[in-house]
Amino acid sequence: MNTVTSFLQKLGPEILSRTYEHIYLVFFAMVIATITALFVGVYLTRCRWPKLVSIIMGVAGTVQTIPSLALIAFIVVIFAFVKLPTIGTVPALVALVLYALLPILRNTYTGIKQVDSSIVEVATGMGMKPHQILFSVELPLSLPVIMAGIRISAVWTIGVATLCGLIGAGGLGDLIIKGLRSIRPDYLLAGTLPAAALALVFDWILGLVEKWLTPEGLRASVENQV
Amino acid sequence: MIRFEHVNKTYPNGLKAVCNLSLEIEEGETLVLLGTSGSGKTTTMKMVNRLIEPTEGRILIEDTDIMEQDPIRLRRKIGYAIQHIGLFPHMTVAENIAVVPKLLKWSEDKIDKRICELLSLVGLQPEQFRLCYPAQLSGGQQQRIGVARALAADPPIVLMDEPFGALDPITREQLQNEFIELETEIKKTIIFVTHDVFEAVKMGDRIALLDAGVLQQLAAPVELVDNPANEFVDQFLGQHRFQLSLLTKTLKTIIPQINQETASEKSSVPPLCLKVNSSLIEALDIFKKTGKVTLPVYQKCLFVGNLQKAALLKAITDILGETGGTT
């Protein structure tokens, strides 16, 4: 018990400020990635040029295959070439957004594509305009799939964001790096445990959002009898 | 009401779905488009609300070319029902029915009233069902909602694409009967697509039999069964000819001329009685149920004569001889 209190006394304030930085990074990366991926994903389902779909999906998929550490390094190098800041929040955010995009993009695209085509046809046949079909039929019906993409993406981003400590963006990665350099398990734990907890909390919150957004008629809990 | 003038539909891959189709659908009639899959019946129907656009020819609704109308407005004036999958699973029954009225910006009160009205019309308790989701309903109930939704904005024209296709035979027959009754109340112009010749004969005022995009015969059910226009029609009816004859022939054809003198007004018609427009199969059924050998025949409230069971059976054997059918 004593060790815990002394641990918190010593590292508590730093854990708090690093966690705040971490949340800040992840939150903005997720907001930017979600908005972009939704727009691009919806556009791709409307796109009449299948080549473009496979190109964009391919690029997003390729980014995903680059090890996260390497991606961050690449961004720093590229930023150095074009004379943008190479340390701090900006390159970190760019890396995180690129990393977070694919799961959301792919799930938005496949989510909308898997909506039964006969339902879309009925909606058209009833005289709905394309944007009405999108907002009142396609998006509600693909929402569980899109939300699953956002949740996967959020958990990943929290993990990858620990690496942003390397380029001076702060976050819980800072504590982990400190612990690694000085072989101090208390620093390692101070970085790792909050990061793991954050992933759980984010996933839980997004789960609630998903539940709240999912149309009642699609919920599994709908009893099967009247 | 709806007129097809030399309509052709050729898909980009060269497939001719509909060839030189000309036909006219009267106001208030139910036209059944009948054919096997790939016959162009669904394509024909979908051209009416421009889900598919003809490559050649014109389709006119009340003498206006549909290609000159805004497709969105056109569709909102045409009811559309398909197999039960067509309900929006994320909307309640009430929301499903309210889709088109909402698009037409009806007031909340009016929509609400309409929902209750329609649910009662299709035989479902409004209070019990309006807040249910499609997943909570049986196939038959879902299909009733589908019909109610197609009628929601009171469109003069209703398109139905195998609306009872996904149901079990018993529910199916029940819904067909209910729909026939409903139809006499609502008086819509209906285009009904089916591949089931019995359903066609039952539902249609006239039947358009299509094969490979070409209209083979356009006729009333009796006419289609009695006088197939060509070999294809004959083959299509095939072994069902006998049953179809029993379904389409009414007592009128086997009772000797209705004698106006012996005809008399009766104040009460028994619930289980023969009508001049009963089909032979219905008559047989009633004989079986009552167990009598002679039954009176009515035309509405007018008693027109008695029918012997033997006479009915003889008529049926005659048809069997004519059609050479097998039962």
Tally of DSSP helical segments of chain A:
8
Main beta-sheet annotation of chain A: none
Cα-to-Cα separation, first versus last residue of chain A: 55 Å
Low-confidence stretches of chain B: none
Unreliable runs of chain A, pLDDT <50, ≥5 residues?
A: 221-226
**Portion in beta strands of chain B:** 15-25%
Radius of gyration of chain A using CA atoms only: 21 Å
Helix residue percentage of chain A: over 70%
Q: Give the topology string of chain B: H per helix, E per strand.
A: EEEHEEHEHHHHEHEHEEHHHEEHEEH
Q: Could you describe the largest sheet of chain B, including whether it forms a barrel?
A: 6 strands, mixed
H/E element sequence of chain A: HHHHHHHH
- Structural class of the secondary structure composition of chain A? mainly alpha
Mean model confidence by pLDDT of chain B:
84
Which percent bin holds the helix content of chain B? 25-40%
Strand content of chain A: under 5%
Most extensive interface, chain pair and sizes:
A-B, 25 and 31 residues
By oligomeric state, this entry counts as heterodimer
- Report how far the terminal alpha carbons of chain B are from each other: 40 Å
